[in-house]
Amino acid sequence: MTDREPTTRRGRIRIEGFDEHATATNTDHVQSNRSDLDAVSDRRDELDRRTTVDRLPTGGRSTRGGRNLDSGVGNKTGLEASWGRFRSNRTALFGLAIVAALSVLALFARPLEFSAMGYTLTVQPFSLAPYDPSELYVGPSNAGPSLAHPFGTDWAGRDLFSRVLVGGRYSLSIGALAVTLALCIGIPLGAIAGYFGGWIDETIMRLVDTLYAFPFLVLAIAIVAILGPGYWNLIVALVVTGWLTYARLLRGEVLSIVETDYVEASKALGTPHRTIIGRHVVPNAIGPVIVQATLNVGSVVLAAAALGFLGLGLEAGTAEWGTMLARGRSSLLQGHWHVTVFPGMAIFLFVLAINLVGDGVTDALDPRRETGRRDR
Amino acid sequence: MGVWKGSGERVGRRTFLGAVGVSGAIGFAGCLSENGSEGGETADQAVENSAEALIRNGFEAAGIDPPFETTIYANAENDERIRWAQLVQYELNETDLFDVGFEQLEWGTYEQLLLNMAENEENCLVTLDLSGGWDPHIYVNSLFHSAHRAPNGFNFNHYADERTDELIDSAVAESDREQRVETYGALQERLAQQVPISIVRSGEEATVYRQERIDDWRQYPLPGSEYDPVYAPYGGEFLETEDETTELVGDAVATVSNTDPVRMNDTTSNMATSLIYEGLLAVDFDGTPRPLLATDWEQLDATTYRFDLREGVEFHNGETFTADHVRASFGRYEGSPREPDVYDWYDGVDVIDDTELEVHLTGEYGPFETSVGVPIVPLAAGDGEIDLADEPVGTGPYRFDEHAEGEYWRLRRFDDHWFDGDDAVPAQPTVETITMRIISRPAARRAALEADELDLSVGLSADDVADLDGDPEYGVERAATGSFDFLIYPQYLEPFDDVDVRRGIDRLLPRQTIVEEVYAGQGTVAYTPIPPLLSEFSIEGGDPGV
Amino acid sequence: MSIVRYTLRRALTSVPVLIGATALTFGLVHLAPGDPIDVLVGFDHVDPATRASLRAEYNLDRPLWQQYLLWVRDVATLEFGESPITGRDVGPTVAGRLPHTIALGVSAWLLSLAIGIPAGIVAAVDDGGPADEVSRIGALVGIATPNFWLGLVLLFVFGVQLGWVRVTPPDAPLASLEMAWFMVLPTITLATALAAVVTRLMRSSMRRELEREYVRGARARGLRERTVLLKHALRNSLTAVVTVAGLQIALLLDGAVVVEQVFSWPGMGQLLVESISRRDFPVVQAVVLLIAVATIVANLLVDLAYAVIDPRIRHDR
Q1: Which strand (E) or helix (H) includes residue B99?
Q2: Residue B63 lies inside a defined structural domain of this protein
Q3: What does the record list as coiled-coil region(s) (chain A) (predicted)?
Q4: CA-CA distances (angstroms) from residue C77 to C70, C74, C294?
Q5: Across the interface, do C43 and B147 touch by the CB < 8 Å criterion?
Q6: C-alpha closest to that of A33 among A6, A56, A69, A57
Q7: Fewer CB within 10 Å of terminal CB in chain A, N or C?
Q8: CATH number (domain holding residue B353)
Q9: How many domains does chain B have?
């Protein structure tokens, strides 16, 4: 404790007596005293992981101070047990089924082809969507739902049913890609910050704090305004604002794992830091991050839709759900309700399903939470 | 959001780009197209074949194998533009000669693309619209003159043609009307051969009002003067309300940003102040210059005009209008952002006495009478006693009352206005206060009108205007306006440097579909850059390129 | 550690974040394409000398770092400069919008607590029962509904179709009955997702309290269930929820940007979107910075409040 200035120390607050013990036994190297400065960060994480119900800042936080590393999710039996718990969770399975169904519909909506050097490789020949989503005037413009066009048509006579199906490709892939890329930034930075501590930690976490001072959408608007709209620009904006949560969460977890005797021992034996982080620290700390990431797929899709609504998402013609909704702003008043309702329902359904899955993953990864609670 | 580029003075001298939203560009229904909607399939087919042949020629000359890849752009804020750009994209891709992508940019980025496209040799087709005023010079000068290559004007694709420059220059430096008509005719033909850009549609202004509140409305054709029909003695117009309504509530599409004439750069601010400020002359609803603060004027020689000024005119702050006000008001433009409004032609003023003055021009200037009517402001504005940006003060029939940033802008009747009444217009406006509520979302404007929160709307989208047109509750008043939508070619780049390619594409443009589908049948298909509003100058009436 | 020392320490850590926030704000705004002078002169052929003098008037001719320092210096004295686009002072422009956003934010915040706390309690008490399920599904629905979509639908149904509320804000002072009535829909729209979050937090924190020894003890001693709930469990779990709710400012501001667009609400969010499209740099900077500072300060306050409530936070040494 003596090697750090109070203002730069980051640790964890131990609230349960158990931690006091840990503090007493590891006074030197281990950052056992959770710094007060982290209180807000952790509550912020709490807020981000809106639906992660059981991780409250006060008292509720299950500490992992002296836990057995073998019980982490990196362990095979742990994974199996988790999957077992997940499988017995009906609502989570239902959510998973919806996500799977939407993904399959999006994938098989239109054939997938890759063209390179004059050759066209058809990866996926099926076409569930009755029309090409970008084909103009396959029906009258702004027609309501009918047999030929179950969801009606938009201003240019494009088939909305086909567009909603294919639109899943954008929304789902944006959600998945943005979260994956954000994880790729957040996990290493969070692990490094938590593992090494000191000025590295300080720098990374101050950066995180600074970015956190800007509400997500405000920052994303600024980034899209600079880069312009477009698929990859949208993803960049979502990643820049998205990695913060993961970094912060993982860092918190890592801090508690670094304290364990096992990691201490590995260090003493001269195992390279990279190996310790990669083999022992991250796998054991990643559980909450996975939960968060699952839930974030939903919020990322919502955020992309909100940007689309503000005219800062994808190009207007794109069959992305949020972008289709942006057109619906005036359609609703003009009586073309279907233009607004169906893409809106698609977003709603997907985000709802993701949240159901997220809940399931939360419960599955942390068996302790199941005690005293029935199947959720 | 509204048009926020350039000036839109009542006697608009300058052009401005329609950046955002629907401001202004709303067309009129029932106007038949000139390229033969009755022509039938065969004629269309023939046009298409000849168009494709032209493009193929160009491709062969440039050694390009179709399909040629390019991108068409629109800006995110303008819904109609996004839609017509997509229609063009679709039409070009149908020929298999092009592989056109579509991209949409936020206005700031779009602006940069426009300004730098030629510099960076961007492979792009760009969609835009432009509004101007009562003189043809406004439209052609900035778009086509080689001296106005972006960023010093709207000649975005750096088109440079000596003959074009010559025609533009000689027409503006000519005050004989017949001579000018002839020159602009030649210019339009030249441009139709060269096709540096393709004009697609000429626009329209429309106001939708609630019949129960408003009897009748007359639309001023140019943006920036939407509320003039409330009381325009110069044009013989005033508003008679149904019930004894003394308050009129309308909308504005964007916030009022700056109301100082020498800094004003958006149409909303123009609109908000057009009943506050008056100039020497005003251009009436048909485009004829009329006396306003001047009672009479004459051209003494090529570069000198003499004005008799109106007596007994009082400013809202109590000052009495004299010739000094004119000189001071013109002088304020020097070094200001709006400097070219006046200093393009202004050399000086000789004050003869309080009610008579001579304006000297730097050279003969054709559009003088439609340009001279810049707002005359009190001397207190020059002394810095009042800040016109916060509180506009003029001589008009309404004075500034209240401004709630982002909410509304309110005008109150000025009881000491100079007009004494005549056969057509009473001495006093019937409407006591005019409230312009700032509603930036088009859908919300319509909703507000339908919910009886507005008496009239000047900023409805074309779709909404068409929708409400049949409804007996609403009156719809339209007027062809001085604006047009156009497509800019990257004529600095192969194969677009070939005039055949540009002409081919020009013929393929689905003008009729754009007018009907995107603009709900409002506006007219257009081919030349001088809109039909200026009927005397425009040679509109057929595709001169064929 | 004393509360004073803790306060000082905590406030100190906000300083680098604050500096970072100003730099980021400035950087983002100036990275955006577009030149305000171009906008000002309407892209016309203005005399280069005029252009240069306008540029100098707004310090746009200086190197970026100098502009940044000048800006920070002014901002430190709450001087936000003059907007080149409107020619008006930025401070009053922003200040005029601020009350609207605050009013909307505060009412949505209160509504979310008013819905979320009881719903969470009921769900926790009824663990696994039908009320729990209903609140859980309700919360999920609230989270999954895009707020702009909800706003549009509400506005359409209650404003346009039924005519119960106005579709644009009334021409009345902010603190008036008319305005309060108009604010109902935007408040609901903004509060929905927040209420869902609060419900879930409340439920879990209450649940945990209920499982604690002292609650079981109290029950064993035969205290009435009501007393147990209200006196013990609720109080402890409320502190948690309220402090977390304090952090919702970021969520509120995010929501406000969108909701203000839907309801034509003249707040900061609308000003931000407008100013971005007008290239009104000083206004964008002021708004973004204000939002960032509000977030930082809110975090700070919540932290301090938290430390007062729970002294273990600052037991540090």
Answers
A1: strand B98-105
A2: no
A3: none
A4: 11, 5, 17
A5: no
A6: A6
A7: N
A8: 3.90.76.10
A9: 1
Residue from B420, B422, B418, B453 nearest B438 by CA: B453
Q: Give the H/E segment covering residue B404.
A: strand B398-404
pLDDT (tens digit per residue) in A107-146: 888 777 766 666 767 777 777 788 887 777 777 877 888 8
Q: Which residues pair with B487 in a beta bridge?
A: B127, B198
Q: Does pLDDT of B27 surpass 50?
A: no
Backbone angles phi, psi at A16, to 5 degrees: -90, 150
How do the domains of chain C map onto residue ranges?
3-76, 93-316
How many other CB atoms are there within 10 angstroms of residue B119's CB atom?
A: 12
Question: Contact A225/A312 with Cβ under 8 angstroms?
Answer: yes
Tokens at residue A336, please?
A: 């073309």
Q: Is residue B334 part of a domain?
A: yes
Higher pLDDT pick, B100 / A124: B100
* Count of other CB atoms within 10 angstroms of residue C131: 15
Contacts of C12 (CB under 8 A, 6+ apart): A7
Q: Which residues, numbered 133 to 172 in chain C, qualify as contacts with chain A under a Cβ-Cβ cut-off of 8 Å?
A: 136, 139-141, 143-149, 152-153, 156, 160
| Residue pointed to by tokens 């001269």 | A270
CB neighbour list of residue A342: distance below 8 Å, 6 or more residues apart: A151, A152, A160, A161, A164
Strands B433-438 and B247-252, bridge-based pairing: parallel
In a domain, B332, yes or no: yes
Strand partners, C249: none
Please state, for a pLDDT cut of 90, what percent of chain B lies above it. 45
Can you tell me whether residue B358 is helix, strand or coil? strand
- Residue A200's CB: how many other CB atoms inside 10 A? 14
Helices (H), C126-248: 130-144, 147-154, 177-182, 184-210, 213-220, 225-227, 235-246
Domains of chain A: 80-109+156-365 (1.10.3720.10)
Residue with tokens 């919806």: A98
The pLDDT of residue B25 is above 60:
no
- Domain C93-316 CATH superfamily: MetI-like (1.10.3720.10)
**How buried is residue B52: exposed, middle or buried, by Cβ count under 10 Å (0-12/13-18/19+)?**
middle
Tokens encoding B529: 């850059």
Is B265 in CB contact (< 8 Å) with chain C? yes
H-type helices in B35-106, by residue range? 40-62, 79-94
A-to-C residue pairs, Cβ atoms closer than 8 angstroms: 213
CA distance readout (Å), B316 to B268, B324, B384, B386, B401: 21, 17, 16, 12, 11
CB count, 10 Å around CB of A252?
25
- List the 425-464 stretch of B: residues with Cβ below 8 A of A: 441-443, 446-447, 450, 461, 463-464
Closest-CA distance, A148 to chain B, in angstroms, reads 21
- Count other C-beta atoms under 10 Å from residue C215's C-beta: 18
Residue A197's nearest CA partner among A268, A272, A273, A286 is A273
| CA distances for B152 relative to B105, B115, B337, B375, angstroms | 22, 9, 13, 25
Cβ of residue B74 closer than 8 Å to a chain A Cβ: yes
**Residue A8 pLDDT class (50, 70, 90 cuts):** very low
- pLDDT digits over B415-470, tens only? 999 999 888 889 889 899 999 999 888 888 888 998 889 999 998 888 889 889 88
CA B236 to chain centre: 22
Beta carbons of B436 and B406 less than 8 angstroms apart: no
Length in residues, chain B: 546
Q: Is residue B70 part of a domain?
A: no
Strand partners, B102: B72
Q: Kindly provide the ipTM of the predicted complex, given to two decimals.
A: 0.81
| CA pair distance B13, B339, nearest whole angstrom | 12
Question: B25 to chain C, minimum CA–CA distance in Å?
Answer: 19
B467 at interface of C, judged by CB pairs closer than 8 A? no
